[in-house]
Every structure is written in structure tokens, then in C-alpha cells.
Amino acid sequence: MSIVSPWLTLGYVIPHLYTDMDAYQFYRVAPDGMMLVTTGLNLKEYSLAAVETELPALWRAFDRLKKKNVDRISLSGVPVASVLGRKKMREILDEGAQRTGIACDTDLEAHIATLQRFGVTKLALATRWPENVNTALSNYLKEAGIEVVSLRAQGRSLDQNKVSSPLADHELALELGRAALAAAPEAQALLLPGGLWFAIYAVPILEAEFGKPVLLNITSTTWAALNAAPKPLQQKPDPKWGKVMAGC
Prior knowledge:
- By secondary structure, this protein is of the alpha/beta class.
- About 50% of the residues lie in helices and about 15% in strands.
- The chain has helices at about 20-30, 50-55, 55-65, 80-85, 85-100, 105-115, 130-145, 160, 165-185, 200-210, 215-225, 245; strands spanning about 10-15, 35-40, 70-75, 105, 120-125, 145-155, 190, 215.
- A 4-stranded parallel beta sheet has the order 2-1-3-4.
- The longest helix is centred in the last third of the chain and has 18 residues, at about 165-185.
């Protein structure tokens, strides 16, 4: 048996006090030898006030990951970045990088980088979030030159998303993803954001049906970390997980 020691470490700040679906999906799509180190916040709801309450804890989380000598730090939680707005979010990432000496990212900026790599300017979006989060997310993407041309959502609270059934969420990803793509033939990709959304198995199915890239938080963030790695990759992800992972 060969020994594979970690050769790339991603520090991940989860919006919650526990890590479950993020790590579960990461270790399926990431190549062998890439390790996830998580720490958490205690986000209570999808609102600007709730996010701002957690900002002091975010700096402590960054400091904690610095001590673990991670190669890159990413803040999970597209709603967090969305409600803060792109200007504020990028300021926080810049300050985090200065504070830790480590490149800092967030799922949403990783989505933007991935979409830009595919040349996407028109996007289909499917979410499990309420209208205020979807609007904030669409505005954030618009600032990056990406227009949401189709949106399908099943609005839920954060508490509801924490306890949802993985299998039901897989089916929901297929349902909403298909509807969003079918409604906008001009869309060049589909975004299924949400770290708590069990959707990795929906990616290859939807890509096979529509021939367009399908992005998840964990795939975009993993792609961004791998493509920013200072050394050649010792191993690449399995391309069965979709066009994003195949492009690493």
C-alpha cells in the first residue's frame, strides 16, 4: 500500500458550528492528498445583521487556520458574501490575506473565477434560498459582469436547510437545475450554490443533459485552490465530477 500524505491543505471557514456536507462532498471531488481543515462560525440566519455579528469570529477563524499552516483559506457561504456585497467581501479577503500571509478566498469569488474561466456572462441559477439572498447574489454576480438570466428557487430558512434530506436535495437539484436551464437556452452555465446542498451527483447528470458546466461551492472552491497551488499537482481530480473538476 502506498502512503499518500497531504500535499495541499485548504483551510475552510464554515458558517456553522459543525462540518458535515461540506467535508462529505469535498473528499469525493478533491484529489487524493488534498486535505480540508475546517473551523466554524455560528451564523443564525440569512441576513446582513446575522453576518455582521459573526465578523469578529471570522478573524479568529482566520488566525486559527494560520496556525495550522494551511496553503489557502476560503470562507464558505455564498449568502455571507452576497449580503455583504462584493466591495466589502473583497476588502475582508484582502485584510485576511494581510493578517495571515495566506491567500484568502470565498466560495462566491471562486464561482466568479470559475465562470470567467469558462467565459460565462449569462448564468442560470438554482437555489434553496429566500428572495432577499437570491437578489443579493444576483447583484454580486452582476458587479462581476455575470448576468443571471434564469432563476429557480425553493426558498428555505437556514434551519430548514440544515436538516434537509440529502436524497431529497439531490432530486431538488435536478428539478430546479433542469427548470433553470430549460427556461434560458442562452445561459452558458448553471450555478447550484450552497455548502449544505447535497448536489455533487446531480452535476454529471445535468451536464450530460444540457452540455453546460454546473458549478457547486465545493467544486469551484476546490478548483480555485488547485489552480493556485504553487507546485505542480501530484494528482488531479476525477473528471467524472464534471467540467469544473476536469479543468484542474
